[in-house]
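User: Last request for today: this protein with zinc ion, please.
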Amino acid sequence: MEKPDIDSISLRMENIWRTAGLRVMQDVVRRIKKNRKITSTADYQINRLLELGQTTEEVERTLKEALNASYPEMFRLYDEIANWQYVRNKDVYEQVNGSFIPPEENEWLKRMSEAVKRQTKDELVNLAQSYGFSVMIGNRRAFTPFSMYYHQYVDAAIMDVISGAFDYNTVIRRVVKQMTDSGLRTVDYATGKSNRVDVAVRRAVMAGVSQITEKINEQTAKELGTDYFEVDWHANARPSHREWQGKVYSKEELETVCGLHTVTGLHGANCGHDYYAFVPGASKRMYPDEWLEEQNRKEAITKEWQGKEYDAYERTQKQRQMETAMRAQREKVQLLKDSKVSEDEVMLARCKYQAQLNEYSRYCKKMKLPEQRERIYYDMRGRVAPGKKSMSRFPKEMIKSAAKDTKQYEKYKNIVGNEVGTLADFGRIKYNDPERFATLKKKVETYSDINKKDWSKEFKQNVKKAYDRFAKENIYLSTHALSRLPRLNKKGYTEVSEEYVMNILKGKPNYMEDEKKIVYFDRKLQLSIIRNKETKDVISIVRRKNPKEGWKSVR
Ligand SMILES: [Zn+2]
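Assistant: Here's the final one, the structure of the complex with zinc ion:
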């Protein structure tokens, strides 16, 4: 191997690792404070800290100060973990001394630094270099200072992920919070596209990390003198990646077979695969062919959900879709709040979100998939789910079709006014009182029919009032019948009052026009009223001297 390049870790680089180390340390302290013991994750992060160049002594001192602990307390913490069978490196807790790996001997740190430097072309700025970001401030597009902050945040996130001390979701959550705290909601790319912050951050961090690991891989392969790489394997990979995962390829094949550097291929959008240097004849394959076949067979087995069959990949896809739908619903709640709609409307949207969460839990349980709620929460919108009491204000069916029902409610309210009550009242009528809802629906339909007519405002008002007077007596008039009503009393006919019409309708019909229509005919008053036999709605009301030809007497 070549002589170590001592200059390769510049002061600037050391500083970058040191700040990454600080964030790890803060997280370790937070974990230990919360649990009063060194958890598995904290243990892992402490090991990472040592690799980042901290000494065991430094780690212990920082922990002691941050936890405000006495030495006996520190001994207790350390003893506990040293006795724990899964501890990664007992020496860390047993031999607290000042020794550390000097940067020039720290192979891991050197390798990482080299890759980061190459990614940034020695400038050590803008790890997320492939993106040109700008930010809208008011109505103006600005490239600084927000876009600079954005780069700083994203770059720090990339360093945290490649240091191995934090997982993606933790890091993304933190960056999104930083962004939204500074008022940033969307990120606009130089290309003119725009994304919500959480989406943009996730994409930038993943792209930055995979570009850096690529450089690490190339370097390792060069040192090992090989041109071959092994692609790793993960469960529930998409079908096109399932074909090539877990096998060994030449550098050229990584591109021709696995589509390296393409959007749909290895290291492309949403690809969770990685690849590592492989020396044919010396390295042993991680995933033998028979094992890969067995996994493929297992993943092809389908499970049923709501009448549909899903294989392993489709199951995780469905899970991702549910998470996306819930993030969208959380955003919708925020938009509703901002647009100052009624409290009920916001609450119903929150209930819908809760129902989605419940279904998500049931789905994950049935499919035996771990829930990944952090994928829902990294939008940093905080608590959206309502309390139990609020949930019970709305019928279940209404929560399910919240958007549709809200729209219908708005329409009804627009047409018949406050009679529909609040959104929750409306839901209770619609789903718990079908008879009352049918009456309401009829009124809305007739009113909206009247609204469409080419009548004067005054005439429309009078017609609607007449509708209501009859409706009180459980008699429902069609728009046509309503329009005849004011013209009923004309010259040459005996006057007929509304009460009289109502009374006739409360009696029995004496004719039938056809199978569907019944007729109330009053020869003395020369009045004929026609009703739908099925719905009992009054279709027509006119004056006439004799029964129509074809009417059949029913008395
Ligand atoms: Zn993949």
